[in-house]
Amino acid sequence: MSSTSSTQIIRPARTLQGSLTLPGDKSISHRYALLAGLAEGTTRLSNFSTGADPHSSLACMEALGATVVHKEDKTIEITGTAGKFKQPSAPLDCGNSGSTMRMLSGLIAPHPRTFTLTGDHSLTRRPMERIRKPLSLMGAKIDLAEGHAPITIHGTPLHAIDFDTPIPSAQVKTAVLFAGLQANGTTSLTEAIRTRDHSEQALKAFGATLNRTTAASGDVAKLSIPGNQTLKAIDATIPGDISSAAFFLCAALLFPDSNLILDGVGMNPTRASLLDVITSLGGKIKVLNVEEHHGELVGTLQVNVSPNGLRGMHIEGALAAQIIDELPVLAAIAPYTSDGITIRDARELRVKESDRIALVAKNLRAMGAKLTEHEDGLVIPGNQKLHGAQIDSGTDHRIAMAFSIAALRATGDTEIHGAESAAISFPEFFTHLNDLCQR
Length: 439
Ligand SMILES: O=C(O)C1=C[C@@H](OP(=O)(O)O)[C@@H](O)[C@H](O)C1
Ligand SMILES: C=C(OP(=O)(O)O)C(=O)O
What we know:
This protein is an alpha/beta fold and 439 residues long. The protein has 2 domains: 7-24 and 239-438, Enolpyruvate transferase domain (UDP-n-acetylglucosamine1-carboxyvinyl-transferase, Chain), CATH 3.65.10; 26-237, UDP-n-acetylglucosamine1-carboxyvinyl-transferase, Chain (Alpha-beta prism), CATH 3.65.10. 29% of the residues lie in helices and 27% in strands. It has 13 helices and 24 strands. The protein has helices at residues 26-38, 52-63, 98-108, 129-137, 170-180, 198-205, 242-253, 273-281, 317-322, 327-333, 356-366, 397-406, 429-436, and strands spanning 7-10, 15-21, 42-46, 67-70, 76-79, 92-93, 114-118, 141-145, 148-154, 162-165, 186-191, 211-214, 221-226, 235-237, 259-266, 283-293, 296-305, 313-315, 341-343, 372-374, 377-380, 390-392, 414-417, 437-438. The strands form 6 sheets. It has a 5-stranded mixed beta sheet with strand order 16-17-15-2-24. It has a 4-stranded mixed beta sheet with strand order 4-5-3-14, covered by helices on one side. A 4-stranded mixed beta sheet has the order 6-7-9-8. The relative contact order is 0.15. The model has no long low-confidence stretch (mean pLDDT 96). Bound molecules: shikimate-3-phosphate and phosphoenolpyruvate. Shikimate-3-phosphate is lined by residues 27, 99, 169-171, 196, 324-325, 348.
């Protein structure tokens, strides 16, 4: 993140009313940017994410020889390299984006060049062995600095593997699929917990062949991708980001008379478990105008809350993995529920842009909440009153936004330090918050 730190003061709100169109989904924007850069022809993308992270992916593709044009109507045109990345003249800067670094590694590993991938203070502390391992099994030559970036990739032809993903990570799955797409032979991959399938949908949209079969014995699915495939450019509109929508959905839950309409929200079933969670907590969601674009469902959400207020719940197992990015905001509103929220099996939160378990615990305590911290989650009792406090976001976008939502029902003002980090995924966040909150 940038070194200029800014503070936002959040005043308590009375209710939340209005409608919003979300900027494009960050996960889908990354994938379209990367695959467009590899493809033949010019890809035209509308509603590309405004977050800094997918722009890191775009900048890396430019450094690899793709042409990126930002049109006046806000569409982005990417003319791909038709499968031939050039030798970049400087290290590929992935900024704050784990998605860029991990998925790009798989995409470039089969190209006969030497690449260095680096990033900011946060990204260079995050675990990268998880992609080095499967890519090395495919024959890739990858050096890490004690498990972290900078990553050096000595590109070389790859061969197919049959890989069981040990951690539920869509980024690791994607690194393997993007490498498999260009390897010799058919690569297969199984994931015990099904993670977001945007890469599978995007690969098919760009013309790749990919199969998913479910074993008769259970729900463990196997993905197979034949190698030596080429991609063709697409025209696409990117659905609104449900992980950004999550902040406003949770804000709407805090006020009995709130009414919020979110247009064009991505509702891919492997990504939208948050909607079930919100319903379990006592939110009422109407889904309208559902359409499908390039395998991605998009719809309008109308949200308000049951007159009985918010219940609590347990989030664990596969569900924790599927809503990993939404857990900080759910934790931040947990004290306002009647029975509290328990989050377990979410150890991955410790290796995101910050240690999100530790920072959620620290900031909830600063606001006066009681809770128990576990290695893999948090137990946050309900029926608690919070007060305004100084919030340490750790320059982690999701922590900054999560505590801006908790602040809406606290007594007194809350100061969010490192608020500029919201721009990593959602630069318009504070403007929308101000417009929708009634005080
Ligand atoms: O594939 C993706 O777009 C992402 C996958 C998740 O990370 P992991 O793959 O590390 O679980 C998520 O936390 C991240 O924000 C985006
Ligand atoms: C973890 C996140 O992103 P990434 O891993 O791409 O940095 C996130 O957006 O919450």
